[in-house]
Amino acid sequence: MKVRSLCIIFIIFASTVNIEVEYLSETSLYMSTETGCNADRNDSWTVGLIYCTGEMQSGYTLFSPMASNTSFLIDEYGREVHKWVSPGNHRPGLSAYLLDDGDLLRTANLGPNQPGEFTGGGSAGKIERISWDGALEWSWSYSSDMYRSHHDVEPLPNGNVLMIAWEYRNASEAAEAGKYPQSDSSRALGTTSVWPDRIIEVKPIGIDNAEIVWQWSFWDHMIQDYDPNKANYGVVAEHPELLDVNFIDSVGGASGGRDWLHCNGIDYNAHLDQIAISCKNTNEIYIIDHSTTTEEAAGHTGGNSGKGGDILYRYGNPESYQRGTSDDQVLFAQHDVQWISAGYPDEGSLMIFNNGNGRDTLYSSVDVITPPINGSVYDISTTEPYGPDNLTWSWDMGTDMYSSAISGSTRLANGNTLITFGMQGTLIEVDHTGEIVWKYISPVNNLGIMTQGDSIFSGNGNKVFKVTRHIATEPALKGRDLTPLDYIEQWEDNCPDQESIPYDVDGDGCIDDTDGDGIDDSVDICHGHDDNIDTDLDNLPDGCDDLIDNDGDGIANPDDLCQGHDDGIDLDNDSIPDGCDSLIDSDGDGVSDMLDRCNGSDDGLDFDNDTIPDDCDDLIDTDNDGIGDDLDACPQTNTSSGITVDSIGCALNQIDSDGDGVSDDIDICPGFNDTIDTDGNGIPDDCDNLTDDSSNTDEVTSQTNNLSELRYAIGGLMLIILVIYLRKTQADNS
User: Fold this and answer.
1) How far apart are alpha carbons 277 and 217 in whole angstroms?
2) CB 1 within 8 A of CB 536
3) N or C: fewer beta carbons within 10 Å in the chain?
4) Pairing state of beta strands 96-98 and 104-109?
5) Bigger pLDDT: 470 or 596?
6) pLDDT classification of 644: cutoffs 50, 70, 90
7) Contact in structure between 588 and 603 (CB atoms under 8 Å)
8) Quick one: which of 248, 327, 328, 308 has its CA closest to 282?
9) Is residue 52 left, alpha or beta, with left meaning phi > 0 and alpha meaning psi from -120 to 50?
């Protein structure tokens, strides 16, 4: 009982000092912890933290609102921990990553006034590296009338950076590549210029320069079946390692234009030394070999794969290489392909945010696939499309959540998945079963910082490309000041002195009492129940008490056999607790333990009737002669008349010591045979000093006379006894 009370005191104390809480076991009882999150906002909350549970991956979430020049690091409650502001005042274009040294690597959108005749969604043109303290450590522009970076970057272990970029190809180059000459809407836009994608690896130099140390281009790996006079002519279905320059998707209709591929996501696998690329307009992901030289990357041999820069693996739309139809398409304008890190659930598989743009029913999903790989080589038949046929893992909310563009997803260390519905600026974390454990809505839109309660669609939305989650022990955050600051969003705070998160559901800034028991949620022991109802007074409200036990015996009240007493105390093991037992009789002899003279034995067994039960009687003496029955040779001797017994319990009249048939009490000649009396004088021979001799006649006569007198005396005495006996008998009969 004392331990329980101390635990409750600790819970209340911890809640008052803002230690965060999570569920305990299967009850609704909350226990204080240093990590975890619990919040469930009502409909009045439109931005910021909406929902969280203790099942979330603890840590800090990095996100870069597309409408802002600022990247934010927030804790699980949505409080700002740190932020980086673009020194060039650039909005993201689109991704941002936290590096091991605490620097922020972010793409930067140079805006609509960039050189070149083309622009498209996700345009960037620049990359920035900002220190933890906000200083610009490095920036580099990759934007001209011939190329432009866009969407995503990938920091490499060697400090270099992979970037996605459009590259300009004029009308003559397009025609030479065998593009259709038609200009109708169902085909490519004739022989006008196109902007396919390339991948470059850049090495930062100084504070504003870089060297391109490796590059790869889709343009070097194309095939077409339109013009046999071109060098890249062939049977498309026989060459899935190449890209059909004339492919026009039948679902979505986005490919074939000037933004031919619209690649939007990139990831690097150091173990395989391979790069994964997501390209929205072909509805496919691709894997290429990074181990090549730039020259090998432009050809078809070399590298670990031996295939140069050819496509090692592709997935999502077999129609694009003529091994399927639109019915076989499984990716729809997807964004953000990533390998799942080693040590994480489904490690080595690929996670894809599948936007669903072009599905018959519009919804977005997160899909995990496990490519058919043997070592570093991907398996494919000569006629069938790349597998797998089935997903390793998938999650969606149906039509309740759909993002037509941007967005991303990533697997976390605890097996949860962090998902960005980019068009809605909504961040969701789900566990491996698909249950939502955290939800946050970006409070930044094109009008600036939003106020709690504002519609998220005001000011043209609050878009976010994709986010990442980091824990305090990572190199980037280790040793940093991660003290939570204020919330990013603006809101009316009626209780400015209270730390109301996560105990404010109605958004007034005050700690709520959601169950109406008069106890604030911050110190409420049993949420959803009345803390004041505690039947057994154990400091655990009944609503959260697994054991309501008024007498504290460990038996719940409904099952308690003896209320007010300890059911566990049953000395006589008769299934009746002692507190309610009218007869506590441990030895079952019918005598209560309090009155029992011989515990453990039957008090009713008293063979010698001395009131001492036999099992506790040191001397069982049936004839009461002082000799125990175990030693008594004459156990039936009646000593009430004063008869004494010997050491074996026998009286003289019960003993014939000399075995002559005469008991010792009347034995005339002890030690000898009394029956031998030769002269018949009544004296056994062995004790007779006078035998039958004529010379002693007088003496014999005298002795005979004496014996005769003795006989007469004895006879008279016996006669008297007989008379007394007869009179007594007559009296008794009358």
Assistant:
1) 12
2) no
3) C
4) antiparallel
5) 470
6) confident
7) no
8) 248
9) beta
Cα–Cα dist 274/305, whole Å: 10
User: Which tokens in the block code for residue 204?
Assistant: 């930062």
**What 3 state SS string does 654-699 have?**
HCCCCCCCCCCCCCCCCCCCCCCCCCCCCCCHHHCCCCCCHHHHHH
What is the per-residue pLDDT for 404? 94
Show Cβ contacts of residue 624 under 8 Å, excluding neighbours closer than 6 positions. Answer: 608, 610, 639
Give the pLDDT score at 23.
Answer: 28
Residue 489 near residue 449, CB atoms below 8 Å: yes
Q: Which alpha helices (DSSP H) does 136-234 contain, by range?
A: 171-176
Cα–Cα dist 432/617, whole Å: 75
In whole angstroms, give the CA distance from residue 521 to residue 515.
8
Among candidate residues 415, 417, 366, the one with its CA nearest the CA of residue 394: 366
What own/partner pairs with CB < 8 Å and gap ≥ 24 does 655-664 have?
none
Give the distance, in angstroms, between the CA of residue 350 and the centroid of all CA atoms in the same chain: 26
Q: In angstroms, rounded to a whole number, what is the distance separating the alpha carbons of residues 362 and 400?
A: 10
pLDDT score of 458: 66
* H or E element at residue 147: strand 147-155
Q: For residue 101, what are the contacts with CB-CB under 8 A and spacing of at least 6?
A: 475, 476
Q: What angle do CA 371, 236, 200 make, to 5 degrees?
A: 60
Q: Which of 112, 213, 116 is nearest to 158 (CA)?
A: 213
**Cα 31 from Cα 482, distance rounded (Å):** 24
The amino acid at 723: V
Buried residues in 82-100 as b, exposed as e (16+ CB within 10 A): bbbebeeebbbbbbbbbbe
Non-local (6+) Cβ contacts of 591 within 8 A are 585, 597, 603, 604
pLDDT digits (tens, 9 = 90+) for 679-721: 888 888 888 876 454 444 454 445 545 555 565 667 667 777 7
CB 599 within 8 A of CB 571: no
> How far, in Å, CA of 570 to CA of 555, rounded?
14
Using DSSP, how many helices (H) and how many strands (E) does the chain show? 4, 34
Neighbours of 168 (CB within 10 A): 18
Q: Which residue has the tokens 């058919």?
A: 372
Largest CA distance in the chain: 187
C-alpha distances in angstroms, 512 versus 30, 417, 505, 571? 16, 31, 7, 52
Task: Check pLDDT > 90 for residue 48.
Answer: yes
Query: Hey, what are 314's tokens?
Result: 């592709």
Question: What is the DSSP code (8-state) at residue 28?
Answer: S
CA-wise closest residue to 525 among 16, 17, 28: 28
Q: CA-CA distance, 269 to 259, in Å (whole number)?
A: 27
| 210: amino acid identity, one letter | A
pLDDT over 90 percentage in the chain: 55
Rounded to the nearest angstrom, the gap between the alpha carbon of residue 420 and the centroid of all alpha carbons in its chain is 26
According to DSSP, residue 615 is labeled G
